[in-house]
Amino acid sequence: MKTKRSNLSVFGDVNKGFFFFLTFVLSSFFASNLHGQCSGVSVVLDDSISVCENQSLVLKPSVILSDPSRSVDSVKWFYNGVLLANSDSVNVSLTNSNVGFYYVNIWIDSCFTTDSILLGFLNPGLILGSDTICSGQSPNPFSSTSAASIITGDTLQYVWESSTDSLNWTSIPGTNLATYNSGSLTQTTYFRRKVELIQNGSV
Hints:
The protein is mainly β. 0% of the residues lie in helices and 45% in strands. The protein has no helices and 16 strands. It has strands at residues 7-11, 26-31, 41-44, 56-59, 62-65, 72-79, 82-85, 90-93, 100-108, 111-121, 126-128, 131-134, 143-146, 155-163, 170-171, 189-198. It has a five-stranded mixed beta sheet with strand order 12-1-16-14-15, with no helix packed on it. A five-stranded antiparallel beta sheet has the order 2-10-9-6-7, with no helix packed on it. Strand 6 and strand 7 form a beta hairpin.
């Protein structure tokens, strides 16, 4: 009597981190960096911005003056010492080449104030592991060749997902580690590692 063995394919992603196209998450960090003698003046920048890779965003400070008779004379935005805009807002399309600190210089009457914001997107890291097995067998565990990271220092967490068609994905409970061992499989299954950004206790 002959037994037919059916082959299963288990797919990881050797070349890039999963959700790379979805989890380029931009996170901004508000660093209070006020200078000058501008009493009665406060400047507020958003402390959290999330966008996808190459998506445009607008940076605009909110300037609050305690004396309504005063006015803002000039606002200039700089990145790496280069003037980006001579206006109260600047449009940024974030890529690998322009992450980092953005500075805004504000002139009010005879005083000068400056503030900064740190922009950076999420690097989801890399995983390794593709295997072909027989039904009922277990593939080799998926390993992490590099961890997820973000320059703003926010908290990150992993979530692994599986799919039988590579289109519809389901989160796997309890998979918050950089690596994953699926156990035995009975059908072709795809796996991916998602990285979530946690700010103020929320994803």
